[in-house]
Amino acid sequence: MIPHRIMQSERENCNEGSGGFDLPLVLFVGILLFAGAMLVMSSSAAVACAKENYTLSIFLKHVMRMGAGVGLMIGLTFYDYHRLEKIATPLIVTTLVLLVLVLFWPLKSGASSHRQLFLWSLNLQPAEVAKFAFVLYLAYYLSYWRVDPSSGIDKHLLLRCLLPIGFGIGLILCETNLSMAVIILVAAFAMLFLAGISMKILGAIMLAASPVLAFVAWAIPYTHARLVGYWTTLLEPSQAGFHTRQSLIGLGKGGMFGHGPGQSTWAYSHLPIPHKDSIFSVLGEELGFLGCVALLVIFAFFFWRGMKIARNSPDPFGYYLAHGILLVIACTFFINVGVAVGLLPPTGQPLPFVSYGGSSLVMSLAAVGILLNISRQGVCSNDHTLEPSFL
């Protein structure tokens, strides 16, 4: 069920009377941020000491970036999300320019692929901006069509949606960031499905995208090696690759209750990038099976509240935007946890709100701010009779 747009006068009256937002969502995000900060502090100490001779250096950077993200989240909570419609196209153009620019940017020390724009101490991953920019762009154009759903999908409008996204995914594949390309593709596919696009069109999109993704995965040496290692693991678990094996050992060492906060030993010498990609394994060792289950439950509540916000959104733009944000965060979460437990081949996606963050953490918190803004306006929409349209 997708609500029609409310009239501008109704929207203004609604905004004047709206003051509440989804407190449970704020609570769940706060718990995840606190848990993430504690895990980053314990898992990054050895790495920080070796690199900068100060055990808290990585943790302090994380806290600073978390503070920037929370500030952005608060600002967007009180910034009318309808105004984002005006920047949807300029933002996507800027994002595509950044995705092109990063391919020619000098490699950061120790990096093997062009994914970051850095200048002095500032770092930006354009792909992290892109996954939410594409959601905003797609939500804007899909909501534009849903004003009159009986008119049928405009093919020119559909092309206007798909061409920038296809170009952006191609640029991200040039960065050899296959997992990010998959996240954006899945989110776009799901949003088009929610808009009522026919399965023939969606099937054609997937048929066109699948060979490209398969070719890139096979052509990139380290991605190829990871996929081969993953296939080997499925056939013979005892021959699991290094990353998967160490991650599973770290999870298993914690047992039911874990060794206690800050007591991880596997993070210091075995887990690759413990404060980023492998932080779920650190959680398993420190807080055990129960700690992992508790984190999964908190994420489940987060997605439940997000879905409620999406359902109660006052117009199609908010509906698609909320769902797109949740899809991106859910895919990132699923990939990180799936890699940690051996369900997926190793890849470099962080655990949302928990892993050591830069662009990913800040953008995820900004997206939560948009969700909270939609919830503020959705609360007062209950006072209006909105004619629903069914898929």
Helix percent reads: 55-70%
Order of helices and strands: EHHHHEEHHHHHHHHHHE
Question: What best-fitting shape do the alpha-carbon axes yield?
Answer: globular
**Domain module count:** 1
Beta-strand content estimate: under 5%
Q: Report strand order across the widest sheet.
A: 1-4
Structure at a glance:
This protein is mainly α. The chain has one domain (2-389).
Strand-helix topology:
Blueprint: E1 2-3, H1 8-17, H2 23-52, H3 57-77, H4 88-104, E2 117-119, E3 122-124, H5 126-146, H6 155-174, H7 178-194, H8 199-219, H9 221-235, H10 242-253, H11 266-269, H12 279-311, H13 316-340, H14 359-380, E4 388-389
Antiparallel strand pairs: 1-4, 2-3
Helix pairs in contact: 2-3, 2-12, 3-14, 4-5, 4-6, 5-6, 5-7, 5-13, 5-14, 6-7, 7-8, 7-13, 10-12, 12-13, 13-14
Q: What can you tell me about this protein's structure?
A:
This protein has one domain. The chain is 69% helix and 3% strand. The chain contains 14 helices and 4 strands.
